[in-house]
């Protein structure tokens, strides 16, 4: 925004310059002779004559035009200075960052302490409360530090025990589940552990529960075969293909025909169904069995060798 005082100053200067042009125009028109004589007389004696009688507001059409010319010229000078000047931030040449005050920090807090992400002793970021745009921050946080800098102890563990959401924790040191798992269990959480180093401490994982189509089965078996070959190992391709065919047949049989016993949760859910819903469930299960029969039986182990070429 342009400065009001500076604009007023240049406006007054424009009026003064316009009035000076007006007086000189009147003096020029009052002289006799050709244009050269008039200009010579004006340059030699015009200043003295203006000082002798400075006030003359008898405007003519010509003098009014020169008055406007002088005023507009000064306004153009003002616009040039204002629009062309650089914006300097004196005192903040090295940046304006500073530590926030306690009042400013509280603007990012939530109504409940347990629903906040703890960033520091007195700095928190709400997860649930809706904030105005200027205080609504992205919830993704990256903590960077060397070994022993406190990434786990000072950030991960305090926010885990907030217990305000579900958590997926990648723990290479394998100690967070031991130190926080019991607390989660006491508060009704389901704790699942996938330990690929010590499988005795790991929960089971059944990939067949996630197979719905033949493409899903093919992708799962491809991953299985690629990760069981061993690096640098070589064998007869015939036996590789034969083993792949056998495993694929067994896996397909499990997907299509094996009905695992129902869990307690499934039995409880079925007991809550109405008579009509239960009948629909039975019809759907019967239809699935009939569709499986239409696919035909799987070849016996002796017949598989005949199919391999």
TrEMBL record:
The chain crosses the membrane at residues 7-28, 63-81. Pfam families: T4SS-DNA_transf. Residues 264-295 form a coiled coil. The keyword Ribosomal protein does not apply. InterPro entries: P-loop_NTPase, TraG/VirD4. It comes from the Bacteria. GO terms for cellular component: membrane. CDD domains: TrwB_TraG_TraD_VirD4. Keywords: Coiled coil, Membrane, Transmembrane, Transmembrane helix. This is Conjugal transfer protein TraG.
